[in-house]
From TrEMBL:
<dbReference type="InterPro" id="IPR007709">
    <property type="entry name" value="N-FG_amidohydro"/>
</dbReference>
<protein>
    <submittedName>
        <fullName>N-formylglutamate amidohydrolase</fullName>
        <ecNumber>3.5.1.68</ecNumber>
    </submittedName>
</protein>
<keyword id="KW-0378">Hydrolase</keyword>
<dbReference type="GO" id="GO:0050129">
    <property type="term" value="F:N-formylglutamate deformylase activity"/>
</dbReference>
<dbReference type="Pfam" id="PF05013">
    <property type="entry name" value="FGase"/>
</dbReference>
């Protein structure tokens, strides 16, 4: 029941997370899970792990959110009811109490891993910045639906859980993204429109919010066919370059607004 993950520590204050990138399910769970792989993939965030390749610290979760969701409070981290999972019936039969206990133990273990990385950054750099990378569906009605771009920004930055002291840093990050283009078009970047930040950012900022900021970066799934899962690798590479170029900018912004350690 352990959560599979990839951890790279390269130093510096920036940590890139892709906690919903994963698709793996523990062998013990597969027989009691009712969802097909394609149904799971639709609500996962495939290819977000690729977007963490920023020459920074990074943590990629390879286990599916349908096994345990690190962006939900512990009591909701296993989807036991359809209302927790976009109306989907996840299980043929509910996981046993023993299985649930093991899943929650794995949830706490990853929290410890993340805490260790954050605390190390605070010790070494005096602060941390998390790029909490996600993606979201904008064609809920079907693959031929026209995207409502007014309601669905190309990039949504969720920031609501951060302490007020990080407002200048957040503004600098949003401004940086808005000044760049993807596929020769200015990027539609908005804050707290589609999502405002999940439980993981709330948990991190409740513990460490005076020392760091969580930028929950939600990409509309323009970089893939959200119904088939087929990626547009050129688009993914463009997004990765954008994020990579932002790292030095955000560190310089921190020094400008908050000074050295």
């Amino acid at each position: 029941m352990e959560i599979e993950y990839v951890l790279e520590e390269k130093g510096g204050p920036v940590l890139a997370l892709a906690i919903h990138d994963g698709h793996q399910i523990a062998p013990q769970l597969s027989p009691i899970m009712s969802l097909s792989e394609s149904e799971r993939l639709r609500e996962e965030d495939p290819y977000t792990g690729m977007l963490t390749d920023l020459d920074t610290n990074r943590l990629i979760i390879k286990t599916s959110r349908f096994q345990v969701d690190l962006n939900r409070p512990i009591q909701d981290s296993v989807y036991l009811r359809p209302d927790q999972a976009w109306g989907l019936n996840v299980w043929k039969q509910p996981p046993t109490k023993t299985i649930l206990a093991q899943l929650k133990q794995s949830y706490h273990y990853i929290q410890k891993v993340l805490s260790g990385m954050i605390e190390k950054s605070i010790q070494q750099n005096g602060y941390f910045i998390i790029y909490d990378i996600h993606s979201y569906n904008a064609k809920r009605s079907g693959p031929d639906e026209t995207v409502d771009t007014y309601a669905n920004p190309e990039i949504n930055i969720g920031t609501i859980n951060n302490k007020g002291i990080w407002r200048p840093l957040i503004d600098s990050f949003v401004k940086y993204l808005k000044e760049h283009n993807i596929n020769e078009n200015q990027i539609d970047v908005r804050e707290n429109v589609k999502f405002s930040g999940g439980y993981l950012s709330k948990w991190v900022t409740s513990k460490y919010g005076q020392k760091g900021c969580v930028l929950s970066i939600e990409f509309r799934k323009d970089f893939m066919n959200e119904w088939t899962g087929t990626p547009n690798l050129d688009h993914i590479e463009s997004l990765k370059k954008l994020l990579r170029s932002s790292v030095s900018y955000i560190k310089n912004s921190y020094q400008s607004h908050y000074g050295s350690k």
